[in-house]
Amino acid sequence: MHPNLLFFFLTCLTQAQAELSGLLSALHYFGLVSNVTFQSLGISRGQCHYSFNTYGLLEERRICAPDDEHILHLTQLPPIRKPPILMKCLQPETPENGTGKEPGLLMMGSSKEIINLLKPVGNATKRHEPGSCVVVHFCTVSSLECARVAPIMNLLPHLFPTLPIAYIDAYEFSRFNAEFGIVSLPTLMIFHQGRPLIKYDPSWADSEKRSFGRFIMRHTNVKTVDPQSISPHIINRTRSEPLPNVPVVHTDYYLGLAWVFILACLANYLRQTVFWKQLVEMVQRNWRESEETQMEMVD
Fold first, then answer.
1. Gyration radius (Cα) of the chain, Å
2. Peptide bond before 186: cis, by omega within 30 degrees of 0?
3. Where are the domains of the chain?
4. Omega before 242 within 30 of 0, i.e. cis
5. Phi, psi of 128 (to 5 degrees)
6. Which of 8, 91, 156, 177 would bridge with 162, disulfide CB 3.0–4.6 Å?
7. pTM to 2 decimals?
């Protein structure tokens, strides 16, 4: 009789210890317990004590928590850095005497110009085959962020004189936004043989000429020229042209129509509410009472 009671007592004690460890694990996970740790109790969350009792009472599931700092390195996979998408670009030869045309940002004014710009050269169908590469800057002059990166984009064709760099107004040519997957402005996209392969959405901290240059050199075989070789006159001129560094204010009629539609829907919704009906009935009742009062005063 005594051995059975002793076994029953040990079983209850083991189960209570397992429940206590599970409760402390939950409290520690939610930050409710900070001064009490499993190391102070002699229990390690980083390892499981496998035995018959722990297997039968499922104690190892309560002790080995998935957020344990001792086994956290076993549950997290190291980040895998994907190799860059590299494409080969055809580059025209630069004249040695410097009599060639001065590079500059190509301003697209019509859909025909955009199609001619992205027209493929040769029969290359894969990105590792030499083909025509075009860097397109999707933006609009009324955007504050686009105005902030405008000096950088104006200078970029001088840093890559053998690479065509064009500007497309995303507001004027909005149909190209859905076709090329433009979801934010500004967006820099590289085309190879007329196909969009990679795009770059710079953040507020990365909007600098070095980040744009690194993006182009990372995904193409085109290298930048020495920035010291660019004339100071060109650097001063690219600060405000061809893209302005100050946002241009335009009247957005579509936005006005959208607000009119929203207000009309709101008015129609309020017209069907009980509060609006009570308000109309109160006004009508007061109007009738005022008319009756005036009739009585006339009589």
1. 35
2. yes
3. 2-75, 106-237
4. yes
5. -85, 0
6. 91
7. 0.59
